[in-house]
């Protein structure tokens, strides 16, 4: 049984043999179905120049989904501070929060959103990677502009995304709720959460430590089907293990023919041991274990599978078998 709220992360994988515009159209149906299922929030990730993920701005997807749904919270998970002027982030998400009161989240992250250095520089008008101090200042400025400059009334709920101790330290210092990328850096999770809770300073945004943990989750009627659905993302992970940038997102049939090396299989298996794949019973047990181990107040599920129907079915099965607030 799961006794914490469940949310979702939309990564917008572009299926091999389809166009990015097809993935974009799917995002509306996805948001509407999760709204109907009662998921707490849906966040959109920022990516650029990727063969596997659509380059859809989180602020645009948030605005569209907010106009197409009625209850689910929506926002960025995250919008990447180094790529945007703080005042623009404040204006964009402040406006959304005014148009859709108590439904908008502003999740802020640090990464470039791309593996391509030229793209990263283009996003930053030719500037190089941001520093820790620069990132801290950008986040603080965004929060300040929300209050002092935008001031449209209801504010978006700010979150800081983290995958390491450094991100956890900044969230604690600024007194922000933290969303931890367990689906990317599971080995860092427990130490970072301890760091965050031990050093948290209350703020007007958040009175006490508050943690959301994102878990890669693939749920199906049978274990074999879940394994089949996990195949495409395993191919992408194998490429990353070899130091490649992102590869196209293959179909399950293409993934089943991929020649994994022993090292790749071991790496993929080690990562999967921290996530939640399988039947509803298996997935709910794993999610409950993650919630207990991390003390998370909320779990966010990311489900990188090939078809919209299979992805929605995964979320339906989890929700049907979970007793959540």
UniProtKB/TrEMBL annotation:
Keywords for the protein's UniProt record, in alphabetical order: Oxidoreductase
Family: To bacterial alkanal monooxygenase alpha and beta chains.
Sequence intervals crossing the membrane: none
Keyword Oxidoreductase: yes
Top-tier EC class: oxidoreductase
Name of protein: MsnO8 family LLM class oxidoreductase
Highest classification ranks of the organism: Bacteria, Bacillati, Actinomycetota, Actinomycetes, Kitasatosporales
EC number: 1.-.-.-
């Amino acid at each position: 049984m799961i006794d914490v709220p469940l949310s979702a992360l939309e990564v917008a994988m572009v299926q091999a043999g389809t166009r990015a515009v097809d993935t974009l159209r799917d995002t509306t149906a996805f948001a509407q179905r999760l709204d109907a299922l009662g998921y707490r929030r849906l966040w959109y990730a920022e990516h650029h120049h990727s063969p596997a993920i659509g380059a859809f701005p989180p602020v645009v997807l948030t605005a569209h989904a907010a106009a197409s749904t009625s209850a689910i919270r929506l926002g960025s998970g995250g919008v990447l501070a180094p790529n945007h002027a703080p005042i623009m982030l404040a204006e964009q998400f402040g406006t959304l929060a005014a148009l859709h009161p108590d439904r908008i989240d502003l999740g802020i992250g640090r990464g470039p959103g791309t593996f391509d250095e030229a793209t990263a520089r283009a996003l930053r008008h030719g500037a190089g990677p941001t520093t820790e101090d620069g990132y801290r200042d950008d986040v603080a400025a965004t929060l300040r502009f929300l209050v002092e400059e935008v001031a449209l009334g209801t504010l978006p709920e700010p979150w800081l995304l983290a995958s390491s101790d450094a991100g956890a330290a900044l969230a604690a210092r600024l007194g922000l709720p933290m969303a931890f990328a367990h689906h990317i850096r599971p080995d860092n999770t427990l130490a970072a959460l301890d760091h965050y809770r031990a050093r948290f300073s209350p703020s007007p945004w958040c009175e006490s430590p508050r943690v959301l943990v994102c878990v890669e989750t693939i749920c199906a009627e049978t274990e074999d089907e879940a394994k089949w659905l996990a195949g495409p993302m395993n191919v992408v992970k194998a490429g990353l293990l070899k130091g490649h940038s992102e590869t196209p997102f293959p179909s399950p049939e293409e993934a089943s023919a991929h020649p994994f090396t022993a090292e790749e299989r071991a790496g993929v298996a080690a990562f999967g041991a921290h996530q939640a794949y399988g039947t509803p019973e298996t997935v709910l047990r794993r999610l409950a274990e993650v919630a207990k181990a991390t003390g998370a107040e909320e779990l966010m599920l990311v489900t990188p599978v090939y078809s919209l129907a299979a992805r929605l079915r995964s979320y339906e099965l989890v929700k049907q078998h979970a007793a959540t607030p």
